[in-house]
Amino acid sequence: xxxxxxxxxxxxxxxxxxxxxxxxxxxxxxxxxxxxxxxxxxxxxxxxxxxxxxxxxxxxxxxxxxxxxxxxxxxxxxxxxxxxxxxxxxxxxxxxxxxxxxxxxxxxxxxxxxxxxxxxxxxxxxxxxxxxxxx
Length: 135
Hints:
The protein is mostly helical. It is built from six helices and two strands.
């Protein structure tokens, strides 16, 4: 199938397929005599795997590791689990950071009257935070 058909079948855009190919995340596609890329069902399966991993927030480097493990039938499942557990720790850290940001913004918003007055605790809070960052 051509790149457009592979994109449709995998749910990954043509641009991203080319990008993944340039990074070596997927093997370089076979080409027709006219230079058009040709993809097999196996290629589309790999692209779908990448899409699933991306939807879980894995980085491209982690996806490369997952692909290697997935293609290695002699792999230890412990290696896959270790990579997944590492990613869970990263996600937990991001969740804590996002929760802290959300809570701070909610506190600032709740202290704002939201009326016609010029004073605004939200802007004051942002200014205070920016002054602490080396201004």
